[in-house]
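Q: Joint fold for the lines below.
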Amino acid sequence: MGMKASNAIATFFKYFVLILVGLIMIYPLLWMISATFKDNSEIFAGIGLWIKNPTLEGYKNALNNFGGSINILQAMLNTYSYVLPKVICTVVSSCIAAYGFGRFDFPGRKILFSIMLATLFLPQVVLNVPQFLLYTKFGWVNSPFYLAIWVHCAFATETYFVYQLVQFMRNVPRDLDEAAAIDGCSSFQTLYKVIVPMLMPALVSCALFQFMWSCNDFMGPLLYVQTPAKYPMSLFVKLSMDGDTGFAWNRILALSLISILPQLIVFFCAQDQFVEGISAGAVKG
Amino acid sequence: MSKAISRRDFLKVSGAVGAAGLLAACGGSSNTGSTATSTAASSAAASVAGLSSDPVTLTMSWWGGESRHNAYQEAIKAFSAEHSTITVNPTFAAWSGWEDTMSTKFAGGVAEDVCQINWNWLYNYSKSGQTFIDLNSVSDYLDLTQWDEAKLAACNVANAQQCVPVSMTGRIFYWNKTTFDKAGISFPTTLDELMAAGKTFQEKLGDDYYPLHLGAYDRMILMVFYLESKYGKDWADPTTSTLNYDADQIAEGIDFIKSLVDGHVIMSLPTYYGSNGDNAAHQSTEWITGKLAGCFEWDSSATKYADALDEENKAGFTVGEEIKFGDYNGGFSKVSMGLAITKTCEHPAEAATLINFLLNEEKGASIMGSECGIPASKAGLAAAQAAGAVKELVAEANGKVMAFVSNQLDPLFESNDLKATGTGIYQEVFDTLDYDNASGADLVDTLLDGMESVGYSV
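A: Joint structure:
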């Protein structure tokens, strides 16, 4: 058996395993798509992809507008109208906070950093009531601009991202900062001209995570959005789920599928940036 | 290049922006805070101010599914058409997460003026009457005579009529006629017939056919039904939560459930979990295809179980009769939901008018129909029936339950620590019963300890 043949066999097995595992991974998503065309009894009867009695009811009902208060398009617009500011605020504020902790030696830095890290371990449930009371005082509950949901992100409250960026920043050599300083950059210029480009992959991953988490957030909007016309997707998907009298799952799944499409698109678009950023910019010579 | 931004400049600017944000935020707070406190004080008075002639805005909240959202909104529209000075701003969602949201709002004193509430919320969030107003103070606007004394009494907590019941609910048997026909028998109406049905199913249809299905919580409820039928007293005192049964009697109840499993009347829980995990019966293949030919469920759940059946079985869904296990008509009904006015409501008279419109008046009640269960208000029920807005299946089930049951439910029975799927004490007891083939006497202590920990006196 020649080199070529054995290579071909090896390649075949590699692909075989990869495709097999890939299929297993993607099966739930495929099932979800197929289930949008099934009725309840068929959905619970088995986990196959084959559809016996295809129905479009799920998609038709997905367009229902709940007494004219809210429809799917409005819900999507509502979602992104707070997700985008949230993502931008998070990335900018976390980056600045991380820069402070990673590059400057100021009095109380260690203590402040530990306090900030400690907030990582505070579960959201514990914060719900005090936060709600605070935002009620501010008059931010049910604000038309979703203030209670995103404004706090402008103050680097997403500790996890700050921590992640500080760690990434350690890998950016200080020599670069010094070189920038010699070239006449101020501290802030060093950040956005030298460090931010190097941190790009980390920033993109922060943005992606925050994007996904915010789109999926259910409790936040449930607490702070009270006008049905302002409901985001996460609430809209669940509006018809009445456990007592029952509901059609195909509609819920169709709604979920439609609502994750933008997320999937963003994810695939950002993937290149995600990988590219890692190889870009290193110290030479 | 423009002037470089130094670190000091940057800090100055960011500090200033931050401070401005804080100031702006605090500025908005002053008026909302003061209104909340002033209304809390005013609603403590025995009677309320009359209807205002100025425009009034009310807020209202409920949970539910699509048809309930639509019904409420349409009824509110009709209400606003009749009372042009009152605007109602609703907020609504599905049940999941709703109690967390509402409890946060109750704690913050910012809950809506009119709230659809679960019965045990009265005890969880307004035990001393701190959250909801006494509806007797607005009886000029809300006709309380439309409810039976007993139904109103169930919502009287801390000497205050804190809500009016929208509907009452209770458990009843549902049978799948298609499967019973295959087995060649009629629906059981006595315990003996039920036991016999288990045998017949096993012999004629096979080991995987059962006349009845009971999940762990259903088993607990049926056990209480059984004991109440036999001894004729409430499971626990509704006001003091003192358990009325001793260890021997409870052991007898648990053994009754065990006899159903042993007699092939109900599937053992390990077998059910094996193919369905935590899923409720209406999501199990066995129910959908008719292998589990009966269930013991809330009257309001009738349509859910009927709709889940496949084509072959759908037509056979039938509301059964309550089974009398002893000398008494055991079993309980409970308030499935109520409407309450919060103490932070600035216009209780208008809020009461709204509730009266939704539950008692012909226009409102005929739109609401049975969307929140079969109306508990007499006038409301009549109007809904006249308008043909009542689901027949649910009405039939509700009628049978209400005509039969004679016991009252205590507010702790549905405590989350007891009834929760997966972690609750009820499930622990009945899981252990099947998994370890234990006896009632072995499990009484587990149950009693669990009940004591949520506040029962045992």
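Q: Anything notable?
A: Residues 278-285 of chain A have pLDDT under 50 and may be disordered. Chain A touches chain B through 48 residues (CB under 8 Å).
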